[in-house]
């Protein structure tokens, strides 16, 4: 398929050419990557929707970290609904299917979603830092309102950073030197310049990966030092309530750290490929190794948008209970619905039989004929 040579992060990577155009006949394969995309989309939708519903329906779960996690889950939903199908379509068609408007809108949505993910993780780390290192800073009663406002600011900031992608992305022409083929695809800049791709890829890598993860690392260094000190200073027969509070904060900090680790691992290959591609922007890599590594990196990136709910399920017992309750309620509602539909069908069937019997009897009386017993059953 024609390589979308440069979409904005998280997918600002040159996806590989379709095997039929990029590989020799002996290397030709029939990719089924759209099936993997389909599984990722379905699993991600189920997990993130259930996570949002669980955190919003239970009053006990409406705390500061969970509000941020809901925002994170919503960002993952946006990425899965809009970007994953677009990526899968490139293995099914040799053309960009979404027009000039889609070329500007989809990169904007993609970059906004990545910004929401990484900046929300940074805000979560800052919240854990305040809760563990500065526990005496008592939160005001309007903390949930302030957190919602902060999450809205993160979304607005991410959208602002994504505006240049919508402005500069356009349908551009590229050519494959080995075959002299020309194709049109969505890219944020033409292929004849060398400076723009390098600046774009490096800025994206710094803003959406290096700087946020560096800030998160600093927060967690202070958190680790504070937890070590509290462990040493805690009396052997200390207050049980204080011990439980410290353990709870440690578990929550561990959960956020797992989220950050998943993000770092899943998005690093994408940024590496995009950086490499920006320094060879005028060339189209048609090798099998590039094809496999790029597909793997993109699938890994999308996978990050569906693993957080399951990681939270494994790490949080309270969330696990609420999650199971939501699933049981859904299953119970579906079972009741199917039973009621079955009863309605039976009632309708019996009513139709009674109506039919009545009609047959009336007709037989009018025509003065006898009706067989089988007709009245």
UniProtKB/TrEMBL annotation:
Its main location: membrane. The lineage of its organism: Eukaryota, Metazoa, Chordata, Craniata, Vertebrata. This is Gastrin-releasing peptide receptor. The chain crosses the membrane at residues 35-55, 67-88, 108-126, 147-168, 199-222, 252-275, 295-315. The keyword Secreted does not apply. Keywords: Cell membrane, Disulfide bond, G-protein coupled receptor, Glycoprotein, Lipoprotein, Membrane, Palmitate, Phosphoprotein, Receptor, Transducer, Transmembrane, Transmembrane helix. Residues 1-18 have a biased composition (Pro residues). Residues 1-28 are annotated as: Disordered. One of its GO terms (cellular component) is plasma membrane. Belongs to the G-protein coupled receptor 1 family. SUPFAM superfamilies: Family A G protein-coupled receptor-like. Pfam families: 7tm_1. GO terms for molecular function: neuropeptide receptor activity. It is found in: Cell membrane. The keyword Transmembrane helix applies. InterPro entries: Bombsn_rcpt-like, GPCR_Rhodpsn, GPCR_Rhodpsn_7TM. It is a multi-pass membrane protein. Residues 47-312 form the G-protein coupled receptors family 1 profile domain.
